[in-house]
Amino acid sequence: MKLFLDTANTDEIREAMTWGVIDGVTTNPTLVAREGRDFHHLLAEICQLVPGPVSAEVISTTAAEMVAEAQVLAAVGAQVVIKVPMTPAGLQATTKLKELGIKTNVTLVFSFNQALLAAKAGAAFISPFLGRLDDLGHDGVALISQICVIFRGYNLQSQVIAASIRHPLHVVQVASAGANVATIPFTVLKSMFKHPLTDLGVERFLADWQAAKRPGK
Ligand code: E4P
């Protein structure tokens, strides 16, 4: 399973890239707005840091405008993937962008039928938002599992990005469900390092090493 970082913060991306565990980045308008920077400059900087897929979302509402916006964003870097919303206009744009050789990530997917339509339209990636489903009392992980099982059965080619991940258990669950990618916030990525026995083990090894260096020993 690939790990993408779900952020537009270049400090987070820079630090995570040093750990050698990040395959790509996803952004969205909320994450970009939080940075208070020019989108195109920010996207260019992210593309310099990350060789893998970098999702950049369009904010237009008609297919023609989405395609025009996408062409400008795609010109920023060869790894840019255009995020389009799961709407009729979004799928129209997905179809057109596929013809133009531009990859898409269909976002805001909350049901199997939406995922199926996005796959039929030629999306390279599909992003079901499990955390937002869980927030409403639905089972987000079950949706990821359903999409992955049926897509494999029918040999549908779109990669499933488990999005809106809220905690480390979600990562385990979507890996078990067969997601191609989990896109995770920086805080969740950092918590994946953590185990109290690792901390205790490091502490003990260092203490034993220091004790062995006492004079006379
Ligand atoms: C995915 O691509 C989205 O950017 C993201 O996962 C949304 O997460 P949220 O529900 O925490 O806003």
Polypeptide structure, described:
With 217 residues, the protein is of the alpha/beta class. It has 11 helices and 8 strands. It has helices spanning 10-18, 29-35, 39-49, 63-74, 88-99, 112-120, 130-135, 140-153, 168-177, 186-192, 196-212, and strands at 2-6, 24-26, 54-57, 80-85, 104-109, 125-128, 159-162, 181-184. The chain has an 8-stranded parallel β-barrel, surrounded by 7 helices. The longest helix is centred in the C-terminal third of the chain and has 17 residues, at 196-212. It is globular and about 80 Å long. The N and C termini lie far apart (49 Å).
Summarize the structure.
With 217 residues, the chain is α/β, with parallel strands linked by helices. 53% of the residues lie in helices and 17% in strands.
Helicity level: 40-55%
Give me the strand/helix succession: EHEHHEHEHEHEHHEHEHH
In DSSP terms (H or I, runs of 4 or more residues), the helix count works out at: 11
Can you count the beta strands?
8
What would you call the structural class? alpha/beta
Topology, pairings included?
Blueprint: E1 2-6, H1 10-18, E2 24-26, H2 29-35, H3 39-49, E3 54-57, H4 63-74, E4 80-85, H5 88-99, E5 104-109, H6 112-120, E6 125-128, H7 130-135, H8 140-153, E7 159-162, H9 168-177, E8 181-184, H10 186-192, H11 196-212
Parallel strand pairs: 1-2, 1-8, 2-3, 3-4, 4-5, 5-6, 6-7, 7-8
The chain binds erythose-4-phosphate (E4P).
